[in-house]
Automatic annotation (TrEMBL):
E.C. code: 3.1.4.46
Alphabetized Gene3D superfamilies for the sequence: Phosphatidylinositol (PI) phosphodiesterase
Reactions catalysed according to its record: a sn-glycero-3-phosphodiester + H2O = an alcohol + sn-glycerol 3-phosphate + H(+)
Residue ranges annotated for the GP-PDE domain, each copy included: 1-215
Keywords: Glycerol metabolism, Glycoprotein, Hydrolase, Signal
PANTHER family the UniProt entry points to: GLYCEROPHOSPHODIESTER PHOSPHODIESTERASE, GLYCEROPHOSPHORYL DIESTER PHOSPHODIESTERASE
Molecular-function GO term, any one: glycerophosphodiester phosphodiesterase activity
Organism: Phleum pratense (Common timothy)
Source domain of life: Eukaryota
Name of the molecule in the record: glycerophosphodiester phosphodiesterase
GO BP: glycerol metabolic process; lipid metabolic process
Length: 252
């Protein structure tokens, strides 16, 4: 750990290869923290909750590292098992990991699906509900984007929400290269689309200040009938007007 503390953080930009560096002035800012240090920091902060992502637990167990037990003990030691003001989200793509946290009834268990899906069968929904109360989907699983054109929404969100399973969508980015043309290079339009059209219960974003600015704005509420409203993108609105050569190739 003393060696790790000497390392310098390096902020990675997902579009650096295209010459779009993310916040180069602060790319080496910050420091590495232990889980215990993070929990103490979060407990003293004015935040609504924390999320802990657990990855590769099965592999780590073969190396003698029980990450589930380590996270559980750290949360108990910091008092999060009795916390009432801040929510705790445990996220993993491994169902046994989430099942292990059922002993903490106050914790939210988020099943992460890190591949694209468009629908989900009823037996699968029943199975998911046994170990999770929320699902984190890729944004390409919630909204259909073909060649940067928004073409529709998938049924998976509706199926999960009908079963009283919350749906989190992400990861959202601000760079225009990550946005469908229908979002008009405006990340707030994508947030509006996920909020009002997709009906996501939560958003996972690399730019929380953008999301916070959207939800603080009265223009984000389409029910208020204001003179200006941040409206969701409309699937098919642009693809119907696009020149033939600009359309994505037909699928096989």
């Amino acid at each position: 750990w003393s060696e790790i503390q000497t390392l310098k953080p390096n902020l990675i930009g997902p579009f650096a290869a295209a010459g779009m560096d993310r916040n180069p002035v602060a790319k080496n800012a910050g420091k590495f923290m232990t889980l215990a240090g993070f929990l103490d920091y979060a407990k003293a902060s004015n935040i609504s909750g924390i999320l802990i992502g657990i990855e590769h637990a099965a592999y780590l167990a073969t190396r003698g590292l029980d990450v589930v037990d380590a996270v559980s003990n750290a949360l108990i030691k910091s008092g999060y098992d009795k916390e009432t003001k801040q929510q705790v989200f445990i996220q993993s793509e491994d169902p046994p990991v989430l099942s292990a946290f059922k002993k903490f009834p106050k914790f939210n268990r988020v099943f992460e699906i890190e591949f694209d899906i468009r629908d989900v069968s009823k037996p699968s929904v029943v199975e998911i509900k046994e170990f999770a109360n929320a699902v984190k989907l890729r944004r390409s699983s919630a909204a259909q984007v073909d060649g940067f054109y928004l073409t529709g929404f998938n049924a998976v969100v509706e199926r999960l929400r009908d079963a009283d399973i919350q749906v989190h969508v992400g990861v959202l980015k601000n760079e225009f290269m990550s946005l469908a043309f229908d979002y008009w290079a405006d990340p707030m339009v994508e947030i509006a689309t996920d909020t009002w059209s997709v009906l996501a219960d939560g958003l996972v974003t690399e730019f929380p200040s953008t999301a916070a600015a959207y939800f603080r704005s009265p223009c984000s509420d389409i029910k208020r009938n204001m003179s200006y409203t941040i409206k969701p993108g409309e699937p098919g609105a642009l693809v119907d007007m696009a020149a033939y050569g600009a359309l994505p190739p037909a699928p096989p």
